[in-house]
Structure formats: C-alpha cells, structure tokens
Amino acid sequence: MGPRLRTSAAAAALVACALLAAACGRSASTSNSSSDLVSPTHGLVTTTPAGSKPVASVTWAVYRPVNSLDPIFAFDYPENTAISLMCESLLHQAPDGSVGPGLATVSTPNPTTMVFTVRPGVKFWDGDPVTPADVVYSLDRQMLPAYGGFYGQVFNRVKSIAASGANQVTIILKQPDYWLLGELSSMPGIIIQKSYALKEGKNYGTPAGGIMCTGPYMFKSWTAGGGVTAVADPHYWNSAVRPKTQQIVIKGVPSAASFTSGMLTGAIGGSYYFGLSNLKQLEDSSSVHVYQGPGQSTDAFIISTTTGPLANVKVRQALSLALDRQAIVNQVYDGAALMPRWLANPGTFGYGKSVFTTAYDSSPVLTQNLSEARKLIKQAGVAGQTITIGTSSELASIAAETGAYQQAAEAIGLKVVLKSVSAANYINFFTSAQARAGIDGFITVNYGDYADPAALLATLAIPGGDQNYDNFSNPQMTALLNQAEGTANPDQRAALVAKAEELAAKLLPWIPNVQPTNVLMLSKGLTGAVASFSYMFAPWANSLGGT
Amino acid sequence: MRWRFLTRRLVMLIASLLVASFVIFGALYLAPGNPITALSGGRALPPASLRVLEARYHLNQPFFAQYWYWLENALHGNFGISITLQENVSSVIAARMWTTGGLVLYASLIIVVFGIGSGVIAALRPGLADTSVLVSTSISAALPSFVAAIVLITLFSVKLGWFPALGNGTGFWSSVQHFTLPAIALAISSLAIVARVTRAAVREEADREHVQTAISRGIPVRQLIRRHILRNAAIPITTVSGITIASLIAVAAVVETAFSLNGLGAYLVQAAESKDLAVVQGISLVLVTAFVLINAAVDVLYAVLDPRVALGSRAQ
Amino acid sequence: MSTVIGVAPGRVRSRTRSGALGLLRSTGIAGMASAVVIAVATVLAVFGPLVAPYNPELPSLGQAFIGPTGGHLLGFDFEGRDVLSRLLAGAQSSMIGPLAVVVGAMALGTLIAVVAAWRQGPADTVLSSGLDILFAFPGILLAVLAAAIFGAGLTAASVALAIAYMPYVARVLRGAALRERNQPYVAALEVQGVSGPNICLRHIIPNMLPLIVAQATIMFGWAMVDLAAISFLGLGVQPPTPNWGVMISENEPGILQGYPLPALAAGLAIVGVVIAFNVLGERLFEQAQGARR
Questions:
Q1: Which residues in chain B are closer than 8 Å to C245, comparing Cβ atoms?
Q2: Confidence band (pLDDT; 50, 70, 90) for B94?
Q3: Contact A224 B134 (CB under 8 A)
Q4: How far apart are CA A507 and CA A477, in angstroms?
Q5: A14 at the B interface (CB within 8 A)?
Q6: CB contact under 8 A, B144 and C258
Q7: Which of B 146-165 lie inside 8 A of A, CB atoms?
Q8: What is the reported pTM?
Q9: Which residue has the higher pLDDT, C38 or A29?
Q10: From CA A71, how far away is CA A457, in angstroms rounded?
Q11: How far is Cα C103 from Cα A301, in angstroms, rounded to an integer?
Q12: Are the beta carbons of B134 and A435 separated by less than 8 Å?
C-alpha cells in the first residue's frame, strides 16, 4: 500500500471535515433585537394549567447534583428545589409572591409578638402530628450557631421562641421585625420532625439519614448516579391536594448541552434551568413548552475582596459602566432577562407595588458607557492593575459572563486573571473564605428568600450579612435597612427599601448584571408546575400531571 | 512449560496490581499540603468531619499500615466517602459501572465485528475491497476519540438526526440508541489497528506453503479459510484485539465526557476536577484492575493458542 | 549478513549526521509533506501569538458564533473570539506539552533500555520486569490521577504521560540496544579498555539514533492526542489560554445549536498535525529498519 494512497486518504478526511464545518455560523445581522425581550409585566405567567392525567415518573433537572436535604444548609437552587418539593414551612409563599398560612396561621397581637397556631390535622409522613415541640426545634435549629446553619442571621431580632399552648408557638422579638414573616415562608421556616432529626443526628438530610417532612411528596431514595427520588404521599394531610404525578426524580445535569439534549428527547420531563444560551432552540422545538414567569433572582458580580482595585467604589462603577449587559441578555439568556436598574429584580415587588414601581421607573437603566468608565479609572489611578475572577469552565453561563467581565475590564485598562473550579466546587466560593482567598469577585445568580428587594439586599449590604464578603458597610444604607425592618406600613417600608436600592445602585456592593425571568421548561405532555420563583420555597408540583 | 509461563504471568499480575494500588494510594502523600488537606479537597471541613477522615484513613499510623488498611477496605469494596456527594464511593461506582461496561462492550463488539471482518475481507479479496478498507482505516486511525465524537454528533445527530446527541437513555432500546455514537467514537481508531493487523496476519497465512499446497490439492476455499488461515491468524488477531479492548477502558473517560454519559470515566474526571480524592482513588483502582486483568487474559489466551508456547496441542 | 554496521562505526555516525536531509528525501512525498506540516506547526508554536490577527483571549460576547465574514476566515467562537487567531495562538500550548512528554519519555526510556541491554543478566531481568509492571497504567488514567493530586494543568499531565510512555520506549529500544551490544565492534572496544558508559554514549546510542528519532516522532503524535484529550476533559491547559483540545470542549455546546465550525476547526488542526507526525514517523521507522538490513 503506497504512501501516496495513505496521504490522499488523510487529505480526503480533512477536506470532508472542512466541508462539514463550512457555512455553519450565525450571520452577524441576526442578533437578538430588543423586541424579543419581555417587559416586567407583560408575557409573564405565575402558574401553568393543572395537569389532568396521571403520570408515573418525571425526571426533573437541576444544574448540579443535590448535596443536602437539610433546610438549614439549603441556599442554592438544587437543594431548594428538592426540599420545597417535599417539605413545608410555617407560612406559605403563593406563586404570586404573597405570603399566607402554611403549616400554621399567624397573628401579631403587638409589634414584638408573633403567635403561630399549628393548623389542625397537619402531620408528617409517618402519621405523627406536627407539634409545637417540632416547630420550636426546627426554628432553633435554624437559629442557633451550634448547628452551623445558613439562616441564623434571619433571626437577629428574635428574643425567644417557645411553645405557648397545645398547638401554639410564640416568638418574642427584641424589636419589631417585618421581614421575619417572609423568611418563615421560606427555607428558614421549614418544619421537620424533632424525634426523627434527633435520631439521625448528623446524618439528617444526607443520603444515609433521609428526612421527615410534611409535604405532598415524600422522600424515597437518594443515590449518587440517580439523584433524589420523591413519591406522592397517599396520606398527605391536605386532602384538597392530590398529586397526579406519582414519582419525581431530581437529577443534577451540569452540562447545558446535555440538558438540552435530554429535554429534546424527553428524557428530562421538566426543569427551571436558567442561563440557557440556546433557549430559542427549546422554544422552537415542538417537544418542549417554555414558560417565563416573574423572576426574583439577580444575576450579579459579587465583590469578595477588601483590598485591590475593586475596593475602590470608582473602580466598581467603571467596571459596571464598561459591561456589555445587552450581550449577556442576548447570548447567555437568549433574551430571557431584563436590563437592570437596581440590584433587585422587579419581580420581587411583593408589597408596596406602586411605590416601588414609581421609584424603579425613575432610576436609570444600567447601560454601557465606555468613555465614562475610562474617565473613572483614570481618576482612580488603577490602570494596569490586575483583578482575579473566580469562575467555572464547566458552567457555560458563568464562563460566558466571566468572559463579558474580562472584556469590560480589558476595555478600561485592567488586567484579568481567571481562577476556574469545577461545577461541584463553585458553591464553595459562597461558603468558604479559604476558597475566596485571592479572588476579587465572582458571578452569582442570587436571590432573597421571599418577594422583597430587602431580602437579598440585607444579606450583602449591611455588616454581618451572610453574603457580605467584602465587609461592605455604609451608615446610610445600614440605617435605611434597619429602619425598614421595623416599619409596619408596607408603603413606608417600600419607600425606605427603594431608597436603599437607589443607594446600592450607586455604591455597588455587588455589580448587577441582568435580571433573569423565571424560566420553566416542560416536556410536551406535561403541565401544571408552578411558573414563578416561588418554586424555590414552596411545593411546586402539586398540580403537575399529563395533558 | 505452559505452566511455568502461566505462573510467571500470575505473579506479574499480582505484582502489577500491588504496585498500581500502591501508587494510587501513595499519591495522597504526593499532594501538596498534608493528607488531610488533600482528602478535604481544599474545602474547610468542620473539626468533626476532619476527625472522621483521620480515623477512616488511619492517618496517625505508619505509612504502610495505612496502605494496608486502605487496601483491605478496597478489597472488601469499601472505598470511603465522596466529599462532594456525601455518599459511599462504592455506591457511586456501582451506579455507574454498567454505563462504562456497556459502552466498552458495545465498542468491543464493533471492533471485533468490523475490525476483524474488514481485515479478513481486505486480505482475501484484493482490489477494490482491499483499497477501500485501507483508505478508511487510514482515516479512522488518525481520529482521536473526542474529534470523532464531535464529527459524529455534528453529522449524525444535529444534521441528520439519526441518533440522540447526549445522555444515557432510559430502558434497553433507548440506551442502545444513545450508546451507538459513543461506541463508534470509542472504537474508531482501535478499529483501524485491528483491521490492519488482521489483514496482515490473514495475508501471511494465506501465502503460507501449506495453504498453497492445500489449494493446489483442490480443497474448497471456505474450508481453508476456516480451518487453516483463520485458526493460525487467530493468534496475532486475538492479541491485538485484546490489547486494544483493554486500552478502551482509559479512553472511555473521554468519550463519556464528550457524550455526557454518566459512566465511571466521566465521574473520575469530575472527581479529579473537584479534588474528591476518595472517588478518584476508588475509580482509578477499579479501572486499572480491569485493564491489568484484560491484558493478563490476553497473554494467557496467547499462551493457550500459540503452539510454540503450549506443548502437545493440535499439530497446526 | 551485511557487515556495514560492524565496520568503522564512525562511518555510520557520519551517515546519519550529514544525511539528515537525505534521510528526509528518502521518506518520499508523503514524508516530506508531513515534514512541512510539522515545520509550520512548530513555527506557529513559537510565533503563533504574534502572527494571530486578532486578540485570541479577549471575549466579545456580542459576536458569539458568528460565521466566517470578511477578515475572520473561520468565524467566532462561543465567547466571540476570532477562531483563526485562537488556532494560531493555540499551537503553542498544543505542541509544547507533547514536546516535554517525548523528551522525558525518550530520555528515560533510552537510559533504561541501554542500561538493561548493557548489564544484561539480573539487572536486565529486574528492569524488564519493572517495565512490565509499569505497563499497568494507561497514560490518561495516570494523568487524571496527577490532575487530582496536583491540580489541573499542563505540567502535571505532561509528567504523568512521560512516565506512562517510558516503559513502551524502553521495551522497543531495549531490543535494538541488545542487538548493538552484541555487535563485534563493541567487544573490540571493550578489549581496548573503553569504559561501558563511554561505549554506550559514543557508539551504541548514536547507532540507535534512526530508531530513536523514528520512535520520538511517532510518540509526539500519540502525546498530542493524549494531551489534547486531557485538555478536552478540562484537566490540562486551562481556559482562557488558547489550546486546540480546550477549544473542542468549550465549543461543543455550539454544535448542538448548529454552529460546529469552532470545534471542528480545532479538531482538524489536531488531526492534521497528528497525521503528519504519524506518517513521517512511520517512514522514519521503515528507514531505520532498512538501515539495519
């Protein structure tokens, strides 16, 4: 066999590959125009039509495998999605963001007293009723530092929590706190069974220990390859709710490409996956139905350092002005996001709507302005300095947005170094100071626990907030938020929070990127899942079934 | 004499496994920092968890004692706990074993059927068949599996829509569909080597004196092919097939990643990225053991087949 | 039996040294074409970042996946960077790793092969058995293990691959070294009182040079494939450094969206250079075998 034959064979292969690749690319003119963008009020839904036919099993995708079912450690999408499916909290967040009775009703005889009355008939999966002891235990678990939970800060105005009757629990506050009720409709308010948790100890919420909750779906199994499996509870205490879907499996799918493939083939039944650059592909497909609801999350750049160029507010403002946010909306979200004016997503205006909306509409949109940015950099005198950005090349949307920041930084004369970790380890940036060492900032798609701009802002803009990684402290901001926490009148509270948001947009403790809508994708043949962000905090599959 | 060879091979097998397991275990000590930092994967673990790790890995004992405990546990199927998943490494392995096994099996079938098949055809039918086999093996020999993967996805999945692009599939038939492109990607470059060696071996046998004599005596060709040519050509063919199948085990990791299959290889890579050392050690041990065992089996098969090694076997 | 090799080893050495160009010519059209490709790739490996028309590392998200247009022959990748520039700049990280692997594996392998062949006897048996045991580690697995221990990166992966390839080199070269060892001229030199290491360095190894060069060339191709695979897995070269293997994995999602060009272009680059090394290496092997007869 001659050398000539082999060479020509090789050449043929290369040519074939080239032909394959030829004429395959987006043309520059087909950029997503702004008419594709949804407005904050139009085109968004909070629920989908309830399913009518029974369904045996649905696989639900999240961006990485669930790593805990313990609500005190749940502060990210996979954990919240799994826990909210199976567990319930003292108060309940409806799809429209309003807070109402959950496992208990609440009355406030005076501004520093909250009395929770457990509703009759509420019981755990093992048939035992929910008692005040369970409530007190669950809340203590969230509050006391010994348990190492994430939500301790939420109880900063609580003086005492104690059983006060056969089915009553009373919370005495040091000062009036009008945020606590919203928090108790979310992860901090999830009620678990005291005896079960004591028996399992450290294993509660792990594959070894399982969980004991009250929700319409009960925990069945949890394996590394298989995900978390929940089955409909035939003895669910609320007889008005009878899920049509027998089993839901929550699986981690870090690769956006493999997620898309799974949705298109029907292997994945549904998901709240966000940051999909090929959302249009799914929208255009006949086998997937895409809904968008009001979002409560904010896509932002967290400043995680107290030193370096980003410690200077002028540099942060410059970086924010240099950022091409429209490209993020188009490329990263394929249109499913809004240009920001504040750190808060307008979908979080769960009260004082008119006050918030007026203030919001009068704030400027954060558009790109490179000349202004360069001016600020010159004033700050940091040209040529380096910032280190934490990222993950495994998470396509994070990688792409980090690229946008690289682009912005280089455009104003800053150098960028990237530090990449795996998808599973990205969450460590949030939990470990060690992981953040040497990093000036990283991208997040973050959220408050209920529909209130203050819910997120308080975690990062006042000293002691659990996401305040750069020790941000501004007396005016602290005063505004503290006052808001104790303000009874919703409109007055809204006015204070709106001022705080306007201040945050100037001081940039975090740099807002875009405001994602809440995307829900369902395989054709399925309907009924909640379409708003409340899926993160309250059962979302009660109406899920076949069409 | 055959027994001496087999005994030596067995000793080498055990030595290989011991050395490999020693390297996999000892790697913990090569890591920067101390073993505890390595095992935590760079995470800040609470002191209670650190104490559990210390006890589990017997970190206060001398090095060889630690190795012994680890090896003993591994032999019982206990590989420790995955830091990222908070689950037993052995369950992680068990859950994913079938994906990798199925993929390697499917690819092996493709290699055996198409590799050997095309090699035999090329050797016995010179001319167009021979040339086309040579050309196609030249092309496929140069395609690394991940390049083959994206070419296959572009052509057969996106453009033609014949196969799904990514994921495992649920149920038998759907899994076969999902595993087809990955198996082809995995097999494609090994296929070329097996086809070439088969072609050369069969050609050589066909030209042999005793075969030529048999032809001149009028013995039917098909009988010749079976009885004489293939049987003798079987030795180098089986050897190279066995070696290439063994090498599939390592390359499977690349194919699994490219096609998002949740197999052992893909998870090994993710665990390496997350610095989940217990998982890395566990899966490495399983894969290396499989690799060593298959290679040893190939050597034994070779000894069984090759009359020069075996005494008193059939006269051919 | 030709005794050309047995006579005046100096003559053999001079043949290989001044005959480098002649050697190349004798590999035929395919061999020379491959050499040209390799030369181009090498030049790019050194000057690639300077030759690249656009900045290969600066993202421009608004231009992601735009197809070939004026000035951008291969279009843009998933972060809006010029694909051609990234290919040219990526030659560096794609070629330097394999170079390190080949140098490491060949140096170690040659050393062990020559020592085993020279000593023979028990030392040889121990070394050979040791090599057989080392065969237990497929290169990619060792590289993944190294990445888990030392962190992802080109250095750890290259060292791991060099260690994994070394037994193969040693085995191939040991045979040739043994043949050289048993040549009459070696006995003659020993009688003259020339030391073992001296004979090995000045005579045996130079006579093995054609085989060593051939082996190194083919091995470069394997190393390129393995390192590209490791970078594809995310355990080798880290983004945003341009690298052909990384380009395939980071642009793979684009394929599903209907934009296969960035990933395929990188794949083509790898395949093209690897084929060149394979073809040239095989030719050189044939020459090396031929020279012995």
A1: 146
A2: confident
A3: no
A4: 10
A5: no
A6: no
A7: 151, 154-155, 164-165
A8: 0.83
A9: C38
A10: 21
A11: 44
A12: no
Rg from Cα positions in chain C: 22
In tens, the pLDDT along A104-116 reads: 999 999 999 999 9
Q: Which residues of A touch C250 (CB under 8 A)?
A: 393, 399
pLDDT-wise least confident of B34-38, B131-135, B150-154, B178-182: B34-38
Coil/strand/helix, residue A244? coil
Q: Give residue B49's identity as a one-letter amino acid code.
A: S
| B293 interfacial to chain C (CB closer than 8 Å) | no
Residue stretches of chain C with pLDDT short of 50: 1-18, 293
Average pLDDT over residues B62-72: 85
Structure ipTM: 0.84
Element (DSSP H or E) covering residue A512: strand A510-516
Q: Which of A144, A168, A167 is nearest to A156 (CA)?
A: A144
Amino acid of residue B151: V
Neighbour subunits, C (≥3 Cβ pairs < 8 A):
A, B
First to last CA, chain C: 8
The average confidence (pLDDT) of chain B is 81
Give alpha helix (H) positions in chain B: 2-30, 35-40, 47-56, 63-75, 89-110, 117-124, 128-141, 145-152, 172-206, 209-217, 221-224, 231-258, 264-273, 277-305
Cβ pairs A/B, distance under 8 A: 106
Contacting residues of B for C171, CB less than 8 Å apart = none
Per-residue confidence (pLDDT) for residue A91, from 0 to 100: 96
CA nearest to A373, candidates A338, A442, A321, A409: A321
Facing residue for C145 by CB, picked from B15, B27, B38: B27
Which of C220, C227, C219 minimizes the C-alpha distance to C243?
A: C227
Both structure tokens of C54: 């656009």
Distance of alpha carbon A183 from alpha carbon A449, whole angstroms:
6
